[in-house]
UniProtKB/TrEMBL annotation:
HAMAP family per the UniProt record, alphabetical: DNA_HJ_migration_RuvA
Function: The RuvA-RuvB-RuvC complex processes Holliday junction (HJ) DNA during genetic recombination and DNA repair, while the RuvA-RuvB complex plays an important role in the rescue of blocked DNA replication forks via replication fork reversal (RFR). RuvA specifically binds to HJ cruciform DNA, conferring on it an open structure. The RuvB hexamer acts as an ATP-dependent pump, pulling dsDNA into and through the RuvAB complex. HJ branch migration allows RuvC to scan DNA until it finds its consensus sequence, where it cleaves and resolves the cruciform DNA.
Organism encoding this protein: Pseudooceanicola batsensis (strain ATCC BAA-863 / DSM 15984 / KCTC 12145 / HTCC2597)
Helix-hairpin-helix DNA-binding motif class domain location: 73-92, 108-127
Any one Gene Ontology cellular component term annotated for this protein: Holliday junction helicase complex
Protein name: Holliday junction branch migration complex subunit RuvA
Length: 220
């Protein structure tokens, strides 16, 4: 299984890049959002990858963070959501936006992705709502970094970079979720409260997120 690729971008397409890793070229499909963050041809880049295997096809899909890769895996587990649809959702919302939408039951945001209808959006929210807290709690993992062109194919090892949302923001949400769990709140209600708080104040630190989430969780 190819878990991560690091090398030199040889070519950029409308929905994919060709990454040269020690003379071997890998075609990696990515979302619009990820493509926009990648450097130009001839420059170094690295992506976590998921290999989709079919009878007549092998395709690699790339992601800047392990969190986004996990969301892709979960999205494609939902009936009616293929790899193309999952990339469209991640391209429209990003990993953090998708986590908030699912935690809050926001079907409209999911439906805004190209090719996703209302029934599919409803199915995604319903089937993944209980899984959202665990994925959101992974947010403290830093995104993958670009690496020299001679880097070999290796399994994922997080490293600092600036190709996705700031790690401090994702880390604050993960820490707030953990703190609320320690206070006895259930994963789903904690995730929804943190998602609301983060949506209201995207750059809030851990303490501010916890206070804001607790206000939302307090009995009326």
């Amino acid at each position: 299984m190819i878990g991560r690729l690091a090398g030199r971008i040889d070519m950029r397409g409308p929905d994919h890049v060709l990454i040269d890793v020690r003379g071997v070229g890998y075609v990696v499909f990515v979302s619009d959002r990820t493509l926009a963050t990648l450097p130009g041809a001839g420059e170094a880049a690295a992506l976590y990858t998921e290999l989709i295997v079919r009878e007549d096809l092998l395709q690699l899909y790339g992601f800047p963070t392990l969190v986004e890769k996990e969301w892709f895996r979960l999205l494609t587990s939902v009936q009616g959501v293929g790899a193309k649809g999952a990339l469209a959702i991640l391209g429209a919302l990003g990993a953090e936006g998708l986590g908030r939408a699912i935690a809050l039951g926001d079907q409209a945001s999911v439906k805004a992705a190209k090719g996703i209808g209302p029934k599919t959006a409803q199915r995604i929210v319903l089937e993944l709502k209980d899984k959202a807290p665990a994925v959101m709690a992974m947010g403290g993992a830093a995104p993958t970094s670009a690496a020299p062109a001679e880097t070999e194919v290796v399994e994922p090892v997080p490293a600092p970079a600036a190709t996705a949302a700031p790690a401090s923001t994702a880390s604050a949400q993960a820490e707030a979720l953990s703190a609320l769990g320690n206070l006895g709140y259930g994963p789903s209600e904690a995730a929804a409260a943190v998602a609301e708080a983060a949506g209201e104040t995207p750059r809030a630190d851990t303490a501010a997120l916890i206070r804001s989430a607790l206000r939302r969780l307090a009995p009326a």
